[in-house]
Specification:
This protein is about 45% helix and about 0% strand. It is an all-alpha fold and about 170 residues long. Among the domains are: about 10-65, no CATH class; about 105-170, Helix Hairpins (Orthogonal Bundle), CATH 1.10.287. Helix 1 (about 10-20) runs parallel beside helix 3, helix 4 crosses helix 6 (about 145-170) and helix 5 packs antiparallel against helix 6. It is rod-shaped.
């Protein structure tokens, strides 16, 4: 059913009710519109409209008596392409996902993984990390076997974890 009063506020609907209590057509329109409203004023007005329709006194408003809005079925053919989670391209089976957080690594082990000494400059640590991680870049996967890809990714994760441990130690835990 159409909702011609949808644009009206509850205050305007209350005015319509006050002016048209005797008109069954107005009462029917108000009842139809107020069924879709869930605010307390609309629920109370709906109870008054229903009481006026029946010719009785207004009953106490009850939330349970308000019917739920009708469920509108979605159109079968969408005018545009909808992307759903199932429509995402599948990941290659050989890609190993990185853990949510890097594993904690002692600082001494981190220096060993990065082939650096504790007195190395931060710039040299960054350069070493970049070099080691680039060895497992996806552009190099074309020439790698599946096992070698997994090893390269694991090594890149180890290098990143070492770098994170040194960064954490250098920043004092911030």
């Amino acid at each position: 059913m159409a909702r011609p009063l949808m644009q009206h506020g509850v205050g305007q609907l209350e005015e319509m009710f006050a002016k048209g209590k005797a008109d069954p057509k107005v009462l029917k329109q108000l009842e139809n519109e107020l069924q879709y409203r869930q605010v307390p004023r609309a629920i109370a007005l709906l109870a008054e409209v229903q009481a006026a329709t029946c010719g009785g006194t207004p009953a106490a408003p009850q939330v349970a008596t308000v019917p739920a809005p009708p469920v509108v079925a979605a159109p079968t053919a969408a005018p545009f392409r909808t992307v759903t989670p199932a429509a995402k391209p599948p990941q290659p089976a050989s890609v190993v996902k990185a853990p949510a957080s890097p594993p904690v690594m002692p600082v001494d082990d981190a220096y060993k993984v990065l082939n650096a000494s504790p007195g190395a400059t931060w710039e040299s640590l960054e350069q070493t990390r970049r070099t080691l991680v680039q060895q497992s870049h996806p552009s190099r996967w074309k020439t790698m076997s599946t096992e070698r890809r997994a090893q390269a990714l694991a090594e890149a994760e180890r290098v990143s974890a070492a770098y994170a441990a040194l960064s954490h130690a250098r920043c004092g835990g911030r």
